[in-house]
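Memo to structure team: turn this sequence into C-alpha coordinates by end of day. - J.P.
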Amino acid sequence: MMAAEERVDKYLWAMRIYKTRSIATDACKKGRIEVNGVVAKPSRTVKIGDKIDVRKPPVTYTFLVKALTGNRLGAKLVPDYIENITPRSQYELLEMTRISGFVDRRKGLGRPTKRDAREMSRFRDSANGTIFPSASPFSSDTTEPSGKSSIHRQDHYSGIYHTSDDYFLDWPDDTLDNTIFSEDD
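Reply from structure team:
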Protein backbone atom coordinates (compact mmCIF):
# COMPACT_ATOMS: atom_id res chain seq x y z
CA MET A 1 0.00 0.00 0.00
CA MET A 2 1.34 3.45 -0.96
CA ALA A 3 1.43 6.14 1.68
CA ALA A 4 -0.58 9.32 1.10
CA GLU A 5 2.14 11.44 2.74
CA GLU A 6 5.83 11.04 3.58
CA ARG A 7 8.29 13.03 5.70
CA VAL A 8 10.34 15.39 3.53
CA ASP A 9 13.71 14.32 5.01
CA LYS A 10 12.94 10.64 4.48
CA TYR A 11 11.65 11.30 0.96
CA LEU A 12 14.77 13.24 -0.09
CA TRP A 13 16.94 10.42 1.23
CA ALA A 14 14.81 7.78 -0.55
CA MET A 15 15.06 9.74 -3.82
CA ARG A 16 18.88 9.87 -3.50
CA ILE A 17 19.00 13.66 -3.25
CA TYR A 18 21.02 13.18 -0.05
CA LYS A 19 23.35 10.31 0.79
CA THR A 20 22.05 9.79 4.33
CA ARG A 21 18.84 10.63 6.10
CA SER A 22 20.71 12.60 8.77
CA ILE A 23 22.24 14.85 6.08
CA ALA A 24 18.73 15.42 4.69
CA THR A 25 17.49 16.23 8.20
CA ASP A 26 20.34 18.72 8.73
CA ALA A 27 19.54 20.41 5.41
CA CYS A 28 15.94 20.87 6.56
CA LYS A 29 17.07 22.27 9.91
CA LYS A 30 19.35 24.76 8.14
CA GLY A 31 16.46 26.03 6.03
CA ARG A 32 17.77 24.69 2.71
CA ILE A 33 14.59 22.78 1.85
CA GLU A 34 11.33 24.41 0.75
CA VAL A 35 8.07 22.63 0.02
CA ASN A 36 5.71 24.68 -2.16
CA GLY A 37 7.68 27.84 -1.37
CA VAL A 38 7.66 27.39 2.43
CA VAL A 39 10.77 26.46 4.43
CA ALA A 40 10.28 22.89 5.64
CA LYS A 41 11.20 21.24 8.92
CA PRO A 42 12.34 17.60 8.70
CA SER A 43 8.96 16.31 9.84
CA ARG A 44 7.03 18.24 7.18
CA THR A 45 5.08 15.85 4.97
CA VAL A 46 5.02 15.89 1.18
CA LYS A 47 2.21 14.74 -1.11
CA ILE A 48 2.01 13.89 -4.78
CA GLY A 49 2.15 17.11 -6.80
CA ASP A 50 4.23 19.07 -4.26
CA LYS A 51 7.20 21.13 -5.48
CA ILE A 52 10.41 20.73 -3.45
CA ASP A 53 13.26 23.27 -3.70
CA VAL A 54 16.66 22.02 -2.50
CA ARG A 55 19.44 24.59 -2.03
CA LYS A 56 22.89 23.12 -2.54
CA PRO A 57 24.94 26.30 -3.03
CA PRO A 58 25.41 27.75 -5.57
CA VAL A 59 22.40 25.96 -7.14
CA THR A 60 18.76 25.57 -6.11
CA TYR A 61 17.35 22.34 -7.50
CA THR A 62 13.58 22.04 -8.01
CA PHE A 63 11.72 18.71 -7.98
CA LEU A 64 8.11 17.68 -8.54
CA VAL A 65 6.78 14.76 -6.47
CA LYS A 66 5.22 12.14 -8.80
CA ALA A 67 4.83 9.25 -6.34
CA LEU A 68 5.70 8.50 -2.71
CA THR A 69 7.78 5.82 -1.04
CA GLY A 70 9.49 5.41 2.31
CA ASN A 71 12.17 3.04 1.07
CA ARG A 72 15.40 4.06 -0.61
CA LEU A 73 15.22 3.32 -4.32
CA GLY A 74 17.74 2.27 -6.90
CA ALA A 75 18.92 5.09 -9.14
CA LYS A 76 17.05 3.68 -12.16
CA LEU A 77 13.70 3.83 -10.35
CA VAL A 78 14.01 7.42 -9.08
CA PRO A 79 12.58 9.09 -12.26
CA ASP A 80 9.31 7.19 -11.68
CA TYR A 81 8.87 8.93 -8.31
CA ILE A 82 10.32 12.43 -8.75
CA GLU A 83 10.77 14.82 -11.68
CA ASN A 84 13.64 17.27 -11.88
CA ILE A 85 12.21 20.64 -13.01
CA THR A 86 15.29 22.74 -12.18
CA PRO A 87 15.53 25.78 -14.49
CA ARG A 88 18.34 25.76 -17.08
CA SER A 89 19.75 28.98 -15.57
CA GLN A 90 20.66 27.10 -12.38
CA TYR A 91 22.74 24.57 -14.33
CA GLU A 92 24.47 27.43 -16.18
CA LEU A 93 25.32 28.96 -12.82
CA LEU A 94 26.81 25.63 -11.73
CA GLU A 95 28.90 25.44 -14.92
CA MET A 96 30.21 28.99 -14.40
CA THR A 97 31.27 28.03 -10.89
CA ARG A 98 33.16 25.00 -12.23
CA ILE A 99 34.90 27.08 -14.91
CA SER A 100 36.02 29.76 -12.46
CA GLY A 101 38.12 27.19 -10.60
CA PHE A 102 40.49 28.39 -7.88
CA VAL A 103 39.72 32.06 -8.50
CA ASP A 104 36.63 31.77 -6.30
CA ARG A 105 38.54 30.44 -3.31
CA ARG A 106 36.76 31.86 -0.29
CA LYS A 107 38.77 33.45 2.48
CA GLY A 108 39.59 30.99 5.22
CA LEU A 109 39.60 27.84 3.09
CA GLY A 110 43.20 27.32 3.98
CA ARG A 111 46.29 26.99 1.95
CA PRO A 112 46.03 26.32 -1.80
CA THR A 113 46.32 22.72 -2.92
CA LYS A 114 49.22 21.54 -5.05
CA ARG A 115 46.97 21.74 -8.09
CA ASP A 116 45.99 25.33 -7.28
CA ALA A 117 49.64 26.26 -6.81
CA ARG A 118 50.57 24.75 -10.19
CA GLU A 119 47.73 26.63 -11.90
CA MET A 120 48.77 29.92 -10.30
CA SER A 121 52.37 29.28 -11.30
CA ARG A 122 51.33 28.53 -14.90
CA PHE A 123 49.27 31.72 -14.93
CA ARG A 124 52.22 33.79 -13.72
CA ASP A 125 54.55 32.08 -16.21
CA SER A 126 52.12 32.62 -19.08
CA ALA A 127 52.51 36.35 -18.54
CA ASN A 128 56.14 35.67 -19.56
CA GLY A 129 57.56 38.67 -17.80
CA THR A 130 54.94 41.08 -19.10
CA ILE A 131 53.17 41.84 -15.86
CA PHE A 132 53.30 45.55 -16.63
CA PRO A 133 52.31 47.01 -20.04
CA SER A 134 55.03 48.09 -22.44
CA ALA A 135 54.28 51.75 -21.78
CA SER A 136 55.12 51.18 -18.15
CA PRO A 137 55.90 54.14 -15.93
CA PHE A 138 58.66 51.93 -14.47
CA SER A 139 61.29 52.08 -17.16
CA SER A 140 64.97 51.27 -16.82
CA ASP A 141 66.04 54.85 -17.50
CA THR A 142 63.96 56.21 -14.63
CA THR A 143 66.09 57.05 -11.64
CA GLU A 144 65.10 57.29 -8.05
CA PRO A 145 66.20 60.16 -5.79
CA SER A 146 69.11 57.99 -4.65
CA GLY A 147 70.26 57.62 -8.26
CA LYS A 148 69.33 53.92 -8.47
CA SER A 149 67.28 52.73 -11.42
CA SER A 150 63.73 51.58 -10.93
CA ILE A 151 63.88 47.78 -10.71
CA HIS A 152 61.22 45.11 -10.28
CA ARG A 153 61.58 41.66 -8.88
CA GLN A 154 59.31 38.80 -7.97
CA ASP A 155 59.27 37.62 -4.38
CA HIS A 156 59.74 33.84 -4.73
CA TYR A 157 57.81 33.07 -1.58
CA SER A 158 54.62 35.06 -2.12
CA GLY A 159 54.64 35.59 -5.89
CA ILE A 160 54.21 39.33 -5.36
CA TYR A 161 56.00 41.79 -7.62
CA HIS A 162 57.80 44.58 -5.81
CA THR A 163 59.00 47.87 -7.24
CA SER A 164 61.77 50.09 -6.04
CA ASP A 165 59.02 52.40 -4.83
CA ASP A 166 58.66 49.94 -1.96
CA TYR A 167 62.38 49.61 -1.26
CA PHE A 168 65.74 49.81 -3.03
CA LEU A 169 67.69 46.74 -3.99
CA ASP A 170 71.45 46.47 -3.63
CA TRP A 171 71.64 42.85 -4.71
CA PRO A 172 73.98 41.52 -7.37
CA ASP A 173 72.29 40.65 -10.68
CA ASP A 174 72.52 36.87 -10.15
CA THR A 175 70.23 37.00 -7.10
CA LEU A 176 67.49 38.87 -8.96
CA ASP A 177 64.76 37.04 -10.77
CA ASN A 178 64.96 37.59 -14.52
CA THR A 179 62.00 39.89 -14.25
CA ILE A 180 63.53 43.27 -14.96
CA PHE A 181 61.30 45.52 -17.01
CA SER A 182 62.20 48.25 -19.44
CA GLU A 183 60.33 50.19 -22.11
CA ASP A 184 61.85 48.21 -24.98
CA ASP A 185 60.46 44.87 -23.62
